[in-house]
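Page 47, continued from p. 46.
Same chain as before, 257 aa.
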Amino acid sequence: MLYEWLFLFGAGLLGGVINSVAGGGSFITFPALLVVGVPPISANATNTFASCAGYLSGAYAFRDDLQAHKQELPQLLLISLIGGILGAWLLLQTPEALFREAIPWLLLFATVLFIFGGQINSTLKKLTSTHRHASVAGHLLLALVLLGVCAYGGFFNAGLGIIALSYLALAGHTNINAMNGLKLLISSAVSLIAIALFIYDGVIAWHEGLIVLVGTLVGGYVAAHVSKRLSQRHVRWFVILASCGITVYFFMVTYGH
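Result:
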């Protein structure tokens, strides 16, 4: 039991550092919960719970940048909450065996997004720079895209921040601080509403989740103080290698027999 607690705390610590420096901490914390025997759907719900505090504190840190977008926040939050409910509900309706088979594909999707997210965002910014005045149909399409992004986040938390940034680039945002603040606000709303459903359904593994949560908070705090010594490029490469390795492992475990 002590070994499991130390393992989960260590995974949370590493995940917290990674999230603060480069993003992608769920590639560490989600598999760690599976390793200690938490069932897949419960591990996914628990990982969402453990990640939420980081989203909330991050969104609060960007509160000044969010002020400039206060007119669009009500709509953004409403769609985020609806999408989060939809995704969490779909997760809870998914049979455990089916979700177990989907894990490698979800991890692969999140890994590809992590690797190519920057290029995707740059491309979207170039495309939208010439189309600043979207039509009503364009606004509706953007709302549907955001709904899809948030539904994904409610269903599977890993990669949510990267997809949210892609949506914001598509919506024409260019200020990186405002985009990070809005990304964290979307992630917070999606996670909070999803957690409410997970609590109601009783799928969160509280002991394991709280240990990971404490680890991520400590990791985030440590990263804030040593981030100048940590190379974002090196941490990013570590996340890419770890996520690729973990994805390959889950493909082998799921389909290798």
